[in-house]
């Protein structure tokens, strides 16, 4: 039994997400926004802006950041931290790319529900 593989769940294919776009994944613990940058890097963040709950999956991706669609706060996709003068933190989740498949770390999800 390979624990390293088992702790990840498949959430779709890289091709499912447009470049500079995002896709929302529903999990028992809530919605997670999975973003793809222009360089085909993939990041997973809670799909909820810490400001007033805006859906970050509908935001604008630029570089390795996303701008919230509601009031334009900008968050790092890498750390989930607000950029510029704003303060706030979005929860991030480990995601990895295996070939074309996207895998999300489930232990992080379980920890949320615990
Ligand atoms: S809800 Fe995201 S900036 Fe206000």
UniProtKB/TrEMBL annotation:
InterPro entries: Rieske-like_NirD, Rieske_2Fe-2S, Rieske_2Fe-2S_sf. GO terms for biological process: nitrate assimilation. It comes from the Bacteria. CDD domains: Rieske_NirD_small_Bacillus. Residues 9-104 form the Rieske domain. It holds the Pfam family Rieske_2. Keywords: 2Fe-2S, Iron, Iron-sulfur, Metal-binding, Nitrate assimilation, Oxidoreductase. One of its GO terms (molecular function) is 2 iron, 2 sulfur cluster binding. This is Nitrite reductase small subunit NirD. It comes from Stappia sediminis.
